[in-house]
Amino acid sequence: MKSFRRLIYPYMVWAGIFIVIPMLMIVIYAFTKEGNDTMTLQFTIENFVRFFEDQIFIQVLIRSLILAIITTIICILIGYPAAYFIARLKPNSQSIMVLLITLPMWINMLVRTYAWRGILLETGLPEEIKVYIGMVYNFLPFMILQIYTSLSKMDPSLLVAAQDLGCNSRQVFTKVILPLSVPGIISGITLVFLPAVSSFFIPKLLGGGSYVLIGNLIENYFVTTGDWNFGSAISLIMTVVILLSMYFTKKFDYDKENGK
Amino acid sequence: MKKLIEFRNIVKEFDGNIVLKGINLDIYENEFVTLLGPSGCGKTTLLRILGGFLEQDQGEVIFDGQDISPVPAYKRPINTVFQKYALFPHLNVYENVAFGLKIKKMAKDLIKPKVERMIELVGLAGFENRDVTLLSGGQQQRVAIARALVNEPDVLLLDEPLAALDHKLRKEMQHELKRIQEEVGITFIFVTHDQEEALTMSDKIVVMRNGIIEQVGTPIEIYNEPINEYVANFIGDSNILDGVMKEDYLVNFDDKDYKCVDFGFRPNEKVDVVIRPEDITIKAKGQGKLNGQVISVLFKGVHYEVVVETKKGASKTVILHVLQDRDIFNAEKKEKMHATDFTMDIEDVADITDEDIIKRANAQAWDSETNEDISIGSLDYQIDAQPGRYPVVFKTHNGTFITVNVTVVEPKVVKDQEAKIGIQAFDIYKSVDEIKESMAISFDLKTWADAYAWYLDNDDEVEIDDVRFDFDPNEIVEGDYEVTFLTMGREYKIHTTEKQEEGSIVSIDFDPEDIHVMSKMVQG
Lengths: 260, 524
Prior knowledge:
The complex is a heterodimer of chains A (260) and B (524).
Chain A: H1 9-30, H2 46-53, H3 55-87, H4 91-102, H5 109-121, H6 127-152, H7 156-164, H8 169-198, H9 201-206, H10 214-225, H11 228-257
Chain B: E1 3-14, E2 17-28, E3 32-36, H1 43-51, E4 58-63, E5 66-67, E6 78-81, H2 93-103, H3 108-121, H4 137-149, E7 155-159, H5 167-184, E8 187-192, H6 195-201, E9 204-209, E10 212-217, H7 219-224, H8 229-234, E11 239-247, E12 250-253, E13 256-259, E14 269-275, E15 281-284, E16 290-299, E17 304-311, E18 315-323, E19 328-330, E20 335-338, E21 342-345, H9 354-361, E22 364-367, E23 373-374, E24 378-381, E25 388-395, E26 401-409, E27 413-416, E28 421-424, E29 428-431, H10 432-437, H11 441-449, E30 452-455, E31 461-462, E32 464-469, E33 479-487, E34 490-496, E35 505-509, E36 516-519
Parallel strand pairs in B: 3-8, 3-9, 6-7, 7-8, 18-29, 21-26
Antiparallel strand pairs in B: 1-2, 1-4, 4-5, 9-10, 11-12, 11-14, 12-13, 14-36, 15-35, 16-17, 16-35, 17-34, 18-33, 19-20, 20-22, 22-23, 24-25, 25-26, 27-28, 28-30, 30-31, 32-33
Helix pairs in contact in B: 2-3, 2-4, 3-4
């Protein structure tokens, strides 16, 4: 067994070069000023002060969070009934439905979004609606699959037991099925909310540039302005926001599982 | 006692399979009723119909004077303990037990004392806040019982609830369940395939088979007066013998007449006779009703299980000729071949097939380098229905061949008039390696000798129960050996506390009231 552990080395090297070092560089950039070189490194919190002093940046951050929250809620509202429906089909039909749901994911996300741009271009819908359509379209499968998994592995005898104890079909759902599918909803949220907060090309392509989110902001500072230091600071702030939201969802999940 | 549940002509079909064939059964208040039968007999289906989880195709379920067929499961005053407990994993012990009462919107201050009392009744006081998924099987079982009973149902259904527990815990829970039933005083309907469970706990046992009820009665009635061979076999150990009822109170079996206490059969009706192993006593030779030889003694804890053979089975001895290996080696094609002589019945010559010959001669071909099997390409033989020796040539596609001799003989049948059994077997010709390579020598000897036994009166096959030989298959050398095939004789199983010597001659004895005569079962 011990020799198998060496198989982890390639990934450790990979993770070191492509995850740990870039993260460290972002931290260094965020806490330094433009024009520094390695010899004259000067640490500062100026980038952060700049972010929090400017109302616009805060507004963009809040707008991003709202977009992600609403996208997640819509995904739950559409995804839960869909997953519930699929989980009650015959096993064969279930596999076909799951295949249908995952089918669009075989195509690159960028390609799909360009297709949406073409479709939505002439509709005259408000930019914001277009962005929501694109976001929900892209993230819905993740939500459905997570909820479907938790529903399909539920022991059917629990539902019979609930009926036996006096539950009508509505109560079987609210008292047993829903609470037991919470872990699925939570992992669905993790898979939808987190990438939605930082998404930048869907809003960019479908929102026509007027709809600026935190992801666009970061892209802008790195690519257009070339202010890597400020861009890194925004990235770091977003990372903290994501970590906090993950912490709260996990905490919620944990409490639910313990029935408190 | 008041009648609580009436099943009237319940029929249930699944995909063209009739699992309940018209069940009629009455269940009374405060009864502990057990539905007993092997899996697939319909006992769980009947329970699910009563619980409201399945709908019968025909018939009525009368509950307290009313047909409850249209009442949905959640409105029935019935609760169930499921086989795998089906506890809610997102709720703790207290919340699981309180579940039904909360659904009924009972006030919280009323729920608490009821739940606590029930948790105490099942012996789980102090476990209220435990996570149910972390409890042992026995504890989960207790939670499931409390969760069902707290709703104060009129009937508690238990679907093989003890099946997943180990032996000791199962015993403990049997007593627990009986105690709880006596304490709460409601009807328990318990489904099991375990006869011991049924006998220990029930007021009434319902023995089921293939969707019908075979017998309903108290445990003592079912045990002492089984209605037919099936019930006798299912409940307890028994000796079941073919017999003929000569007249009232007189039954004939094993070629002797015995007094018994049974009556009401047609004269000379064929019957099954049951004698329970614990009702037979062992006496000194000549002192009892039948003499026999002790052929096995097993220690069972409280008693010994002794098998006495009162009549030997039929036997036939043949010669096993162990020969030198005669493998053919075709060096050019790198093929090896093997086959041995065999003897066959003159009557079988007409229907012999190539496959039979390959099997009886154990003809094989294989690659001498890789040891991979090669198929036998063709056989060349001319066997007449005349006693004599006939050559058979086996050939592979590459032309390697081997010749063996088949000896056709008149069948040498032993007809044992006392046992009314005929038995035949042929001499065997095998190589040392074939004997050594055999994985199951008794089975192979039967195949090689084409040993077969049958009843002389109706030609039904009799199993050859024993193959005796005095060589060690792993150490065998060339030569001739005797092999004897035996059918099972008349054996009696006896439970006794006195140890018996294997091989000793004893006499067995039983009283007229120990003989239970039953009608022959209608097959179906």
